Amino acid sequence: MRKLVLLAALAVALALPATAFAAHESNNKLDFAPVAGSLAPAVSGSGVINYIKGTSGEEPDTSWSSAFRFSGLASDTTYTVVVRGRFADATAFSGICSFTANGAGNGSCASQFTGLQRLAIAQLRLGDATGTAVLQATRQAVVAGPGSITSDGGCREPDQAGSTCEAPGR
What we know:
Layout: H1 2-15, E1 27-34, E2 44-54, E3 62-71, E4 78-86, E5 93-100, E6 107-114, E7 116-126, E8 133-138, E9 148-151
Antiparallel strand pairs: 1-2, 1-8, 1-9, 2-3, 3-6, 4-5, 4-7, 7-8
């Protein structure tokens, strides 16, 4: 009887449509560090980019949420967070959120976006997405560079119970 139940469960699992989940499903913790020659060496930042789901089950239709926090910035100045690895052009940088630093030089932003192949580099840029890089977070296993990106399944935004890292929140 037990073998029959196992065979039935296997048959049902094989009959269900296969969902092409993102090979890179994860929650990512980002620690930013100044880029070489940065005009703002005292700037710091952190963030999370969390995988939400594949909305259609087919790539590049993956959904992500992000949240970032920075300090030591020039006050009343606009900054943009960009990532490399979006599906349209995996080698290009795309802006995912922007903010204007407050009078104390602090700022944050959050966003939801679709289509990320492999998160290898994120940067904080002065002005818009084409601006000069100030800070960078890098997945060291993929490419060398300042800062770090680490996958951490327990690194969730603060509104999710059980977070294992200090995420910046929304």
